[in-house]
Amino acid sequence: MIREILNLSVLNAFKVDPADVSYPLYERLPGKRLALLNWGPSTIKVSFATKLGDRMDVAPEELYFPVTTPLTKVVEALQQRTDCGCVAVLYSAMNLFCEAQNGGKLEPGAALEKKLRDDPKGLVGSGYEEDKVYQMLLAPDRQTRVLFAVSKAPYRELEQGLAAEGLVIVRSQISPYALLNALLADRGLVSSPGEEIIPLLAVVSQAHVIVMGYNGNRFSPEIFRATPLFMDKTNDSPEAIEQIRAFFVNCAESAVMSKRIFGKRVVFHWAVAGNALEDSLDLGSYLQDRSDVEFKKWPKMEVNVDFKALVEQ
């Protein structure tokens, strides 16, 4: 009996800080339900996840708010979806910076994330800016990476606003970073047995479209493109359609010239998340007249794939 009481007292004394990122998310969560927020320049999206053993199960619920919605109203929706005051956040911004880079052998992903938290200036290098928040994604070859950055002021303003309302942020990621991370976890994504094609990845996340060369092992920085293109109802004007067409044509032609593989189809493997009209989005409709370009929607696309990417370990 004494031993049981002692063991129970030790367990009660040891409580993991919900914000301590050195522990898995499911171990840090003091309750069963985690609120989820995707905050961006084109829409605000809310849902929740439930802790099931050693994983988080994201609910199919999708609640959208206009970007003009007061934070207090969004917070009210979040508080209704958590039993422990915890929230995980995806963040998008118009001023997103992202760039594919080649370099020497890097540490594994977890070690790289810790180094980025502890010494971002040392890891980012001469391009480091104090007023930016950085995240970095590592390719399987551990020699190529994608660096993401957003302005620190509005990012911190959102975090402080949520904290002021009593919410604890247990995880915070830049939206395209999370979605691209989910794509890279699908090791068979760019494989096309028996086909000679030029595969490209395309990520549509709120305001931005990011296209990159990726062969299943490493990125190709020379054909990396990122641009703010709102993929929603504002894209129905002739000017907007032509802008989108020009972007993808430029990406395809740059890939052909870079790889010097002529006469082969360029295939965009694409995914979209966090957009209110993502169910009806069809990138292939913009280049229907190009037989040398094909768009293949990621077969693992599903409801709340952005939030599922966010809560993955």
Gist of the model:
This protein is an alpha/beta fold.
Written overview of the protein:
There is one protein chain. The chain is of the alpha/beta class. The protein is 29% helix and 31% strand. The chain is built from 9 helices and 14 strands. A hairpin with a 2-residue loop joins β2 (44-52) and β3. α7 (175-184) packs across α9 (305-311). The longest helix has 22 residues, at 238-259. The protein is globular. Mean pLDDT is 84; it is low at 3-13.
Describe the secondary structure blueprint for this structure.
Blueprint: H1 2-13, H2 25-28, E1 33-39, E2 44-52, E3 55-58, E4 63-65, H3 71-79, E5 86-91, E6 97-102, H4 109-118, H5 120-124, E7 132-138, E8 144-151, H6 152-164, E9 168-174, H7 175-184, E10 197-205, E11 208-214, E12 219-228, H8 238-259, E13 265-273, E14 293-297, H9 305-311
Parallel strand pairs: 1-5, 5-9, 10-13, 13-14
Antiparallel strand pairs: 1-2, 2-3, 2-4, 6-8, 7-8, 10-11, 11-12
Helix pairs in contact: 7-9
